[in-house]
Amino acid sequence: MSTRSIVAAAMLLPLTAVADDISKGEEIFNRKCSQCHTFAMAQAMLEPVKEKDRPEHLRAFLETHPAKLDANEKDVVIKALSQRTR
Ligand code: HEC
Hints:
Helices cover 66% and strands 0% of the residues. With 86 residues, the protein is mostly helical. Helix 2 (15-32) packs across helix 5 and helix 4 (54-63) crosses helix 5. It starts with a helix and ends with a helix. The structure holds heme C. Heme C (HEC) binds next to helix 2, helix 3, helix 4 and helix 5. The site of heme C (HEC) has 18 residues, from helix 2, helix 3, helix 4 and helix 5.
């Protein structure tokens, strides 16, 4: 088994945990970030960024972005925004 398929398998296993994380991230987003754009709009703006590059991209981006999140909220929101839900 290649490293790639092991990683893929590890990502597929906790499907329900991932779904929970997405809704938690969306919930925080709706509370703290939705004055200016919706979660769906933020995801649409992220389209050009490859999914695997999103956590790093978002971590840097959110450093200077309005509406501060604490470290824990930031992790959850980044995880949610980094998933392709469609
Ligand atoms: C004061 C208004 C405002 C708030 C509050 C805000 N944003 Fe944004 N956001 C913008 C604007 C304007 C853009 C598009 C321009 C840009 O990229 O800076 C944007 C773009 C984005 C993008 C696209 C990134 C990219 O690479 O282009 C993401 C992701 C994002 N916001 C996430 C968030 C999150 C998460 C929060 C809450 C912590 C948040 N935003 C709060 C105004 C806001």
